[in-house]
Amino acid sequence: MRSSRDMAVNLADASTLIKQASSQGAEFISTPEMTNIFESDRERLKAVAMTEAEDPSVHGFSELAAKLKKWLHIGSMALKGDDDKLVNRTMLFGPDGKCVARYDKIHLFDVDLPNGDKYRESETFTAGTQAVKVNLPFCTLGLSICYDVRFPSLYHMLAKAGANVLVVPAAFTVPTGKAHWHVLLRARAIETGSFVIAAAQGGKHDSGRETFGHSKVVNPWGQVMAEAGADPEYLLFEIDPAESVAARARIPALVHARQFSLSDVAP
User: Fold this and answer.
1) Which of 63, 67, 214, 263 is the most exposed place for a label (fewest CB within 10 A)?
2) Which helix (H) or strand (E) holds 11?
3) Is 263 among the domain residues?
């Protein structure tokens, strides 16, 4: 996607792509981080964001999931939290339209980039504290959002708990996307023997920010099986959870992982 400042436009654009994917046989559909609104001005974002109960995108996606009778994973939405900050929240809607799982982004992106861009997610968002896996009829899903991908321990925990498909909805910047997006997704797939589904924002947004795009599906052996560019589109790919079982049998790193202590030596 290339979400804008206009929630109504974003809901319409996302719904169009979701319907197209559904018409081609998709049973599980995933969208990027910040599907409902993409706003670089944090004060304006706080001013226009709504609670989960109020947000029209939440209601719209719920109704769409029920209409299409598909599993609909909205990668994330900016929603008002319980305090004066927002939450960056994944919502998974079932084929009946009910929200079956929520996940609030745990790791927040606070950084000064070499090109002068500065990001302070913690000034706007409250970090989540709970990892979430979801037992679906066709796979076990591990939830994450964007910057989480840099923290392997989260994915190791999810995989050890049984997750064999990991979702990484994102809005990577262009410089870091070019440098790290591909290798991080492949690494998380290889380390855990899992499929990785990563829907991403891409292109120049009306808020002035540019995102990397390159949504992709990576198999448990670390191979990129499908990849988009920077323009809005959908990818359609069939996954076989048995591939995760096979990859983990060939490289049983999850079983071999051990607890250990550190010796701090000062000669």
Assistant:
1) 263
2) helix 7-23
3) no
Structural domains of the chain, count: 1
Per-residue pLDDT, averaged over 113-121, amounts to 78
pLDDT, residue 84, reads 87
Query: Would you say the C-alpha torsion 43, 48, 53, 57 has a positive or negative sign?
Result: negative
In 10 A of CB 212, how many CB atoms? 23
CA 266 – CA 221 distance, rounded (Å): 40
| Structural domain contains residue 114 | yes
Q: Please give the DSSP secondary-structure letter assigned to residue 164.
A: -
Asked whether 21 and 1 are in contact (CB, 8 A), the reply is: no
pTM: 0.96
- Are the C-beta atoms of residues 118 and 111 closer than 8 Å to each other? yes
- With beta carbons less than 8 A apart as the criterion, state whether 140 and 133 touch: yes
DSSP state of 230: S
Domain hosting 252: range is 7-256
CA atoms within 13 A on the CB side of 83: 7
Query: Which residue type, as a one-letter code, is found at position 169?
Result: P
CATH of the domain at 213: 3.60.110.10
Report how far residue 190's alpha carbon sits from residue 116's, in angstroms, rounded to the nearest whole number. 33
Mean pLDDT, residues 173-198 taken together: 97
With respect to residue 261, please indicate whether it lies within any of the assigned structural domains: no
How far apart are alpha carbons 168 and 175 in whole angstroms? 18
Q: Which residues are catalytic?
A: 33, 105, 146
